[in-house]
Amino acid sequence: MSKHERLVIVGSGPAGYTAALYAARANLQPLLFEGMQPGGQLTITSEVENFPGFPEGILGPELMEKMKKQAERFGTRFEASEITRVDFSQRPFKLWQDDTLYTADAVIVATGASAKWLQIPSEKQYQGRGVSACATCDGFFFRGVEIAVVGGGDTALEEASFLTKYASKVHVVHRRGELRASKIMQDRARKNPKIELVLNAVVDEILGDGKAVTGVRLKDTRDGSTRELPLKGVFMGIGHEPNTGIFKGQLEMNEVGYLAVKAPSTATSVPGVFAAGDVSDPHYRQAISAAGTGCSAAIDAERWLGEHVTESWN
C-alpha cells in the first residue's frame, strides 16, 4: 500500500528547508526526505558569515537547524531517510524509500551537489579547520596567509583568483604538467603575482597540529619524491558533482548531471516536478541563492497544483 502526498520534497539544506517553509505556509503539508546528510553541505561548514541576518556569523549546522525548525513550525513533516528510486513517467509520481512506496501530486528536488574531494583521511580531519571546498564561503578567514588550491581547470583558477583578495600567496597544485583551464584563465593566473603554479604534483597528505592545517605534503607525479609546503588552508577546486543519480532517465539534465530548469521558473522537463538549489545551479552554489530557489520552487509547485490537481489521487 503506497502512501500518498500532495507534495514531496527530496533533499534538505537551504533549498529544501526553504521550499518546505513556503509550502507548509501554503497549507500543502509537505513531506521532506532529508537524505543521508540532513542539512546538506552547510553541516560540514563551520562559520557562515555571508548569510543575511546574522551580523556576527552563525555555525553552518546551527543555521540549518534553525531553518528546519521554522519549516517544522508550519507543519512540514520530515523523514530522516533518502529516496532511492523514482518514476516520474506518469502521475501520481512514484518515489521509493528502499521498499516503501510514496506517491505524490508534485515533487521538489533539492538534493544538492557534492564537492569532489581527494579522499584522504587528513582531508576529512581538517574539514572546516583549514580545508574547504568553497572559496566564496571561507576565503575571508585566510587573510594574509599562504594557502593552496587543488585542481587545474577553470574552477580551480577562478577560486585561486578570488582567494588572492585575502591570501598572501595561493599555490595552485595540479597533477599534470599543463593546466586544463581555458587559455584566458591560464593567462590571468600566470599574470597574478600572488598565484604560484605547482605542476606535476598531488597532495599526498594534509598536515596539521590537530586543531588546524599547518601545511601539505606534496608528491611529485614524475619521480614520486615528496616535499612539505607550509600553509594555513587547502581549497578543493576539482569541481562539484550534482546528486542526481536517481533522476537519470527521468529528468532532463546537462552533460555533467545538473538538472535543467525552464528559467526563470524552477520547472524541470516533467510538469509537476521542480528543482531548487545546487542540484540545478552549476554557477553560484551559495546558501542564499539555494534558499531563494527553494522559495521559487514552492511557489511554482503551489501554483501548478492549483491549476492541474483539483483533487488528490488515491
From TrEMBL:
GO aspect biological process, one term: removal of superoxide radicals
Molecular function as annotated in GO: thioredoxin-disulfide reductase (NADPH) activity
Catalytic activity: [thioredoxin]-dithiol + NADP(+) = [thioredoxin]-disulfide + NADPH + H(+)
Cofactor: binding details: Binds 1 FAD per subunit.
Broadest EC class assigned to this enzyme: oxidoreductase
Quaternary organization: Homodimer.
Protein name, as recorded: Thioredoxin reductase
Species annotation: Anaeromyxobacter dehalogenans (strain ATCC BAA-258 / DSM 21875 / 2CP-1)
